[in-house]
Amino acid sequence: MTNRNTILKQLKKTYAWCIIFCLIAIGYLSIKVFRQENNLGHAANKQPIFTAKNLTNLSRQLTIVRKNELETLYPTCEELWNGTTSYLSFWLAIEEQYHVLPRVTNSYGIFPTCEEYFRKRKYLYTPNAITEDEKNFPIAFSFLVYHNFDQLEQLLMSVYRTNNFYCLHVDKSADERFKEQVRNLSSCFPNNVFVASNPVKIIYGSVTILMAELVCLKELLRFSSKWKYVINLTGEELPLMTNLELTTVLRQLNGSNVIDGPGPTWGALNRYPEHLPFNLTKYKSMAHYVLTYNACKWIFEDGRKISDALLKSLEPFISVEEAFFAVLQFNHQTKFPGGIDVNLNDPKYEKVLHSYANKGMFNRYKKWTSDKKHCLSGKLQRNICMIGVNTLPVLITQAYGRHLFINKFPWDFQPRAWDCILAWNFHKVKNEMLTGNTALDYYSYLNNIQLRYSRQYTMQPRHKNYKAPTSRNSYF
Questions:
Q1: What is the pTM for the complete model shown?
Q2: DSSP state, 259?
């Protein structure tokens, strides 16, 4: 009898503790949801993005997502970026810690054979999706990477086409396992993916970043003369456009480069030397570029005297990659292929220059701020907002049709955001295969100073598919 009473007391005690624990958990979840609601309203100027139109059991949906099939995730993502999911489902998406696609490496980080790799990714590499327009307009990509192999692998998968070319610059100081993984991955695409043979040890803020960019540009020129444009990437980015959409947009540039600039003329320019060689004017840009094949070739051949002197003068300073290409692009006297053909120092272009400098960025979507409260994701790194689940509606409804790629996409922060952009791109590719048309039928950003005053653009007729920008504010 005594033993029975002892057991009952113990059960009651356990039951009481269970109730207390449940109450604490409910209170904690309520506070989290309440805070999330407040953050959503504050981040969107007190305009809540998400409404409880459809109650979605997100955790249940995630458990039935089949491996290697991003399409099964698409309906859930669609609710997230359309604002038709509940706050609870939205919070669960933020708390999700795992990516939908399984890693291709094993638990020891060893890359499989190429046959096994393609078996794991068989739904996601779609060589039959390449149109004639894409075949006739190959694009080159340079990657500056140093960690997070899984992220790099999925980024490459999202932009890969058999007719494009890819240079992978692996930081000389990167982990040996990472280097081996990248080499093994590139070996599965021997015709158009290669690892830079003379890598640089990159030090943040130094000239080594520019040196690494130039290494890839030089090796891409040696690898093939077929590509039309080159786009530089880092490991923490994803495309906003499919390859067919990129091809459509780049064709409309008619041989013009696009460097995000000319940048502001305040203190940032003081980081560079007071006088540049050849009496060149100082300009600043973002670190991202879209350059023609001829522009890259000019740097190492016809314009080598200018580019070498400019590189030497900038070498001791910081963030020189933000000045090197901008100086070549915006100084008309360099005769940089695809560059500006007018003297931007002429007072009659002052207003034009100022209006363009405030327009934003063509190559990347990124948001600069010094306060993380102004970031939809609530996470800030080097004054740039990280991409999170709450950024998805902005990416789909505003950034798409105005920017080419998304910048600052950390791998371990809110993985569902990364997965949803992958799913969205994969879904668009499938639709292109069925219809032969791109989802993007309007591109509002082409009417800018670089096109209007580019020597290449003014000399050539517009492409047959060019659509003149209108005054509408929509981005697509």
A1: 0.81
A2: E
C-alpha–C-alpha distance, residues 374 and 377, integer Å: 9
Q: Where do the structural domains in the chain lie, given as residue ranges?
A: 1-48, 49-111+388-402+410-440, 114-387+404-409+443-459
* Cα Rg, the chain, nearest whole Å: 25
Per-residue pLDDT tens over the stretch 444-457: 555 555 666 776 65
Residue type at position 64: I
CB 443 within 8 A of CB 470: no
Q: Which fold does the domain 114-387+404-409+443-459 belong to in CATH?
A: Spore Coat Polysaccharide Biosynthesis Protein SpsA; Chain A (3.90.550)
Q: Label residue 85 by pLDDT band (50, 70, 90).
A: confident
Phi, psi dihedrals of residue 361, rounded to the nearest 5°: -120, 135
Residue 450 has φ and ψ, to the nearest 5°, of -70, -35
Query: In whole angstroms, what is the distance from residue 441 CA to residue 90 CA?
Result: 30
Stretch (H or E) spanning 4: helix 2-43
How are beta strands 193-195 and 165-170 bridged, if at all?
A: parallel
How far is Cα 353 from Cα 475, in angstroms, rounded to an integer?
22
